[in-house]
Structures are given as structure tokens and as C-alpha cells.
Write a structure and sequence with these properties.
Low-confidence stretches: 1-33, 395-400, 569-588
Transmembrane segments: 73-97, 118-142, 233-256, 268-287, 323-342, 363-384, 438-459, 466-489, 495-517
Structural class: mainly alpha
Order of helices and strands: HEEEHHHHEHHHHHHHEHEHHHHHHHHEE
Distance between the termini: 21 Å
Membrane topology: Multi-pass membrane protein
CATH architecture of the largest domain: Orthogonal Bundle
Number of domains: 2
Subcellular location: Membrane
Pfam family, one: Voltage_CLC
CATH class of the largest domain: Mainly Alpha
Number of strands: 8
Strand content: under 5%
Keywords: CBS domain, Membrane, Repeat, Transmembrane, Transmembrane helix
Radius of gyration: 24 Å
Shape: globular
CATH superfamily of the largest domain: Clc chloride channel
């Protein structure tokens, strides 16, 4: 075996015996005994012993160092390219399914002449959403590791813990196909987390030149089949997933460094950046030709488009606004901590009760969440929404297609329906850029409903991301603050409400996941507005600090609940909260 030694990261008997009392036991969380399983460690350390010297000598004898390095860069490109193609597949099918669903429901609502016929519209929407979610949940039941966002599992893998089936082809199919139906099914989930997991699986599989599922695929090349080499490609694949989702190649590299890896080196930085770049611009190239004849333009964003911030006659932000942003960040951290605390209790309940029962129970839970979410969104849009004038600029530019005009006079739109009856990405753009007003009641109700439903949904047996729901929930919170300040407190009316929506989105997402550096760069790249750099940095730091007063980030909470022995920086012991040491110039 290559790269194996009885030290940190190895999987030898001595180390396993030392770890056995910690990784094979059941710990109690809040008086609830949760299921545990044994985990093995991966061989990330390089020990320069006789077997390793023989391996290096044989490999360099058959292939030159330059050839191996060239193959490594070529494989890195294909990891990024294939990740971009998976993103293109997910985005295209989700838009197709969503368009089909909303077209049928929209026609039914507009044909209603009486209030009673809205029940038929609700039933049509329920059939679409529950049916889609049942398909997504069925795929997760067939491959359980495909559930959730996949980011906790990838973090564990990149930190040296072998998570069973996390990088299999079957997991990729279940993840990428399942997320189509969970997003199109109206659940308050995103596709960016599954995209990161899908990119990591591609990074784990492509360099192996073999497949466990399809045994006929097995080339003689065995260059990158050690745990150490495989880990580096998984890091690149995870970064490529972020880059494809947000159109943020630099943010993808920083995400892999900040949130994923404890093993890093300078060469890996360059290859990960190249992989992210390949994913972003491969996706951009093909997106440029969908629905137009302008093939080859590379300025299109990733899957999530925040639009262009236009603030004619309004100021972007000033020193006084910065004080408000800090308060938004502090409250965003508290909201994020509350979200994590509630979701932790729900996850403990699922692990203790739902997961132990028959698989059909998990399927029924997913269907129940879809039905409740659909019903609440439909009732809120039809009964609670207020009619607001459509801004003239949107009528002139023909960009009013995203607003919903249910039961409103000509030239008006239903503000609540505009948020609930659009995709989450479109709803975020409405909160960032819509010149029309959203009522304070609409924003408050939407925030509360979305907060609790998104919290309930994360952990259901479907592929589900957390970034976009958190951004949408936070955008409503930020827009609520802007509306409150202008209409009721007498704040400067020249403020740009979209800025407050962006700051609220960053604050809430930062409070949930506790990311700072990478999230700042991702949001700057996604908005194409470098002027937001300072507010985003400060808000994300404040949100992290206030959230850390109560609990950890949601990904770390889920890792702990599963009993995964992940090493973290700053401690010399090995358990769910510890940190590692340095070996051979790498952080472990």
C-alpha cells in the first residue's frame, strides 16, 4: 500500500485501536441516543519508506515526471468540464420542469371566475410538486448518501475520513437527477450543494480510469489511485461545483480551502483554480447558445444569477448605512443560530425515529413536506398578497414577465405571489432589483414562513442545497429592514433597497453556515459589484461572531450528529470537535 504509515491519516491497526473508543460508540445528544457507525481514516500522509520508494521508482521508470504532470492537468480540465456539463443538465431540466408546472397552474388560476375553482389550481400544483418530490425521495432511498447537500460528507472526506459510497457513480446519478425533482417540486431547497457534491464525485471518479459500477471501464493507468492523489482531485471537483453554481471560480477555490480541506499545498491551489475556471467557462459557453444564436460568449453567469445592480438616482451605501449593515449582520447571525438550533432538534428526531422506520415512512415525510409547503405558498399568494403598481421602467423594458398579477388590476402585480410563484433565483432577483414596493406585511410573513419551512425541509430524504434558500430568506429580511427604515422611521429615501436585500442575504447565510472569506468572494463575483466588498466583509464577520455565541455552523452540527471523527485546527485530541497537527508542510 502506498502512502501508508502509522501516523495521523493512516488506517493501520495501531491507530484504529487508539481511535476505537471514540469512533465506534454512541454519544448522547440532549438525552437522545443517536445511531453511530465505525469510520475508517484515509491515507493522506506520505511516508518515505521502502515500499513507497519502490513505487516511485517504478512509476518514474515507466513514465517521466513531465508526462505524469501533464496528464494530471489534462484530467483536471476534464473534471471541471464534466462538472460544468452536469450543471448545464441540472439547470436545463429544472427550468423545463418548472416552466411546465407554472404554465399549467397559471392557466388554471387565470381561468378561474369563482373563488371555489382555486381548489382545482391547488390540486394541480400539489400533483406536480408531490409527484416530483416523491421521485427525488425514491432516488435517495435507493442511494441514501445522496440525500441532503452532500457538503458535510465532502468535508469529512477531505479531512481524512472515509465516508462509504460518497464518491460512487450511483451516488452521482441519484444526486444530480434527484435534485432536479426536489427543486422543481417546490421545496425550499437549492441546487448548489448537490452541485458541489456532484463535482467532488466527478473529481473522485474520472482520475481513477475505472468504475466499480461498470467493471468493463478499467484502464491500465493507475497514476492517481492513491488516497492522496484522489483527495486533490476531489478538492478541485468541489471547487468546480461552487464555480459552476455561482459563476465564481475564485470563490470556488476559496470555498474548497476554507470549508473543505485541511490538506493543502501550492500546486493544489493552481490545479483547483484551473478546474474551477474550466467548469465556469465550459458552462458559460454552452449557456450562451441556449435560446440564442450567440455561441461563444463567456460573460454569462453561473446557474445562480443575481442580476445587475442599477441604482440611478440612489446611493449604493454610505457610512450611516454601514452602521445599519452591522446591525443587520448581528441579527442575521442570531437568526442563523436559531435556524441551526431548530434544525438540529429536527435532525435528532429524524435520526432517532424516522430513519429507523420503514423506508416508506421517509418517502411519506418528503411528500408531506412538499404538500404542506405547496399549500402554504398557494394560500399565502392568493389570500395574503397585496396589489402594487408595476414600475414603468419594467413595463418599458419588457421585464415584467416575472411578476405575478393574480387578482390584480391591469398595471399591478401581486407582491406575495411574485415571491412564491417564481423560482427561488427569480425571487431573489425580484428582492434585489424590483423597483416596485413589497409591503412590510408581505416581507415579514414571507420571511417567517420561509424560515420555518426551509428549516423543516433541510434533512428530508431528498437532495437539497442550503445556499439559495438562505439567500432568499435573508434577502426578504434585508428588504424588510429597508422598507421599515424608509416608511416608518424616516430614513434617507434615496437608499437602494437592493443593497439592504443583498446585505440581509449575506447576513443570514453567514449566520447559518459561518463562512466568511469564500462567501464574500462568491457574492462579489455573483453580483459583479466590487463596491460591496467592505459591507459584505464586515457583515459576514459580525454574523459569524454573533452566531458563534450560540452554536456552530449547520454543516459542522450535522457532522457531529453523525459521529464522524473529523480533525480540526487547534486541538491535539481526536473527536468531533478537535483539530489536527502539521505533517510534511501540510495542515491536517
Amino acid at each position: 500500500m502506498v502512502d501508508c504509515c502509522p501516523c495521523f491519516g493512516g488506517s493501520q491497526n495501531g491507530r484504529e485501536e487508539e481511535m476505537r473508543p471514540l469512533i465506534g460508540t454512541s454519544r448522547r445528544h440532549d438525552n437522545v441516543s443517536l445511531p453511530r457507525k465505525d469510520y475508517e481514516s484515509l491515507d493522506y500522509d506520505r511516508c518515505y519508506n521502502t515500499p513507497y520508494a519502490d513505487y516511485v521508482e517504478k512509476q518514474t521508470k515507466d513514465h517521466s515526471v513531465a508526462k505524469l504532470e501533464a496528464i494530471k492537468w489534462i484530467v483536471t480540465f476534464f473534471v471541471g468540464y464534466l462538472t460544468g456539463m452536469v450543471a448545464l443538465f441540472i439547470d436545463s431540466i429544472v427550468k423545463l420542469l418548472t416552466r411546465l408546472k407554472f404554465s399549467a397552474v397559471d392557466d388554471s388560476i387565470r381561468s378561474c371566475s369563482e373563488d371555489g375553482c382555486l381548489i382545482l389550481s391547488l390540486l394541480i400544483m400539489l400533483c406536480f410538486n408531490v409527484g416530483f418530490v416523491i421521485i427525488a425521495s425514491s432516488l435517495v432511498i435507493l442511494e441514501p448518501i445522496a440525500g441532503g447537500s452532500g457538503i458535510p460528507e465532502i468535508k469529512c472526506y477531505l479531512n481524512g475520513v472515509k465516508v462509504p459510497r460518497v464518491g460512487r457513480l450511483r451516488t452521482l446519478v441519484s444526486k444530480s437527477v434527484g435534485v432536479l425533482f426536489s427543486v422543481a417540486g417546490g421545496l425550499f431547497v437549492g441546487k448548489e450543494g448537490p452541485m458541489i457534491h456532484s463535482g467532488a464525485i466527478i473529481g473522485a471518479g474520472v482520475p481513477q480510469f475505472q468504475s466499480i459500477a461498470f467493471k468493463a471501464i478499467n484502464f491500465k493507468y493507475s497514476f492517481f489511485r492513491t488516497d492522496r492523489e484522489k483527495r486533490d482531485f476531489v478538492s478541485g471537483g468541489a471547487a468546480a461545483g461552487v464555480a459552476a453554481a455561482f459563476g465564481a471560480p475564485i470563490g470556488g477555490v476559496l470555498f474548497s480551502l476554507e470549508e473543505g480541506c485541511s490538506f493543502w499545498n501550492q500546486k493544489l491551489t493552481w490545479r483547483t483554480f484551473f478546474c474551477s475556471m474550466a467548469a465556469t467557462y465550459s458552462l458559460n459557453f454552452f449557456l450562451s447558445g441556449i435560446g440564442s444564436d450567440e455561441w461563444g460568449y463567456f460573460y454569462l453567469p453561473g446557474l445562480i444569477n443575481f442580476g445587475v445592480f442599477k441604482y440611478q438616482g440612489q446611493h449604493l451605501w454610505n457610512a450611516m448605512d454601514l452602521l445599519v449593515f452591522l446591525a443587520i449582520g448581528f441579527l442575521g447571525g442570531i437568526f442563523g443560530a436559531a435556524f441551526n438550533a431548530i434544525n438540529k432538534r429536527l435532525t435528532i428526531h429524524r435520526m432517532s425515529h424516522v430513519n429507523k422506520k420503514h423506508k416508506v415512512i421517509r418517502l411519506l415525510e418528503a411528500g408531506l413536506v412538499a404538500a404542506v409547503t405547496t399549500t402554504i405558498a398557494f394560500i399565502g399568494a392568493m389570500l395574503v398578497g397585496e396589489c402594487r403598481p408595476i414600475p414603468k421602467s419594467e413595463l418599458i423594458n419588457g421585464t415584467d414577465t416575472a411578476v405575478r398579477t393574480y387578482f390584480c388590476d391591469k398595471g399591478e402585480y401581486n407582491d406575495m405571489a411574485t415571491l412564491f410563484f417564481n423560482s427561488q433565483e427569480e425571487a431573489i432577483k425580484q428582492l434585489f432589483h424590483q423597483e416596485g414596493k413589497f409591503s412590510l406585511a408581505t416581507l415579514g410573513i414571507f420571511f417567517i414562513v420561509f424560515f420555518f419551512l426551509a428549516c423543516w425541509t433541510y434533512g428530508v430524504h431528498v437532495p437539497s442545497g442550503l445556499f439559495v434558500p438562505s439567500l432568499l430568506c435573508g434577502a426578504a429580511y434585508g428588504r424588510f429592514v429597508a422598507t421599515l427604515l424608509v416608511n416608518y422611521i424616516g430614513y434617507d429615501k434615496s437608499i437602494y433597497s437592493g443593497t439592504f436585500a443583498l446585505i440581509g442575504a449575506a447576513a443570514f447565510l453567514g449566520g447559518v453556515v459561518r463562512m466568511t472569506i469564500s462567501l464574500t468572494v462568491i457574492l462579489i463575483e455573483s453580483t459583479n459589484e466590487i463596491s460591496y466588498g467592505l459591507p459584505l466583509m464586515l457583515v459576514l464577520m459580525v454574523a459569524k461572531w454573533s452566531g458563534d455565541l450560540f452554536n456552530e455552523g449547520l454543516y459542522d452540527i450535522h457532522i457531529k450528529l453523525r459521529g464522524v471523527p473529523v480533525a480540526r485546527m487547534g486541538s491535539s485530541t481526536w473527536n468531533g470537535e478537535n483539530e489536527g497537527k502539521r505533517h510534511n508542510g501540510e495542515v491536517t
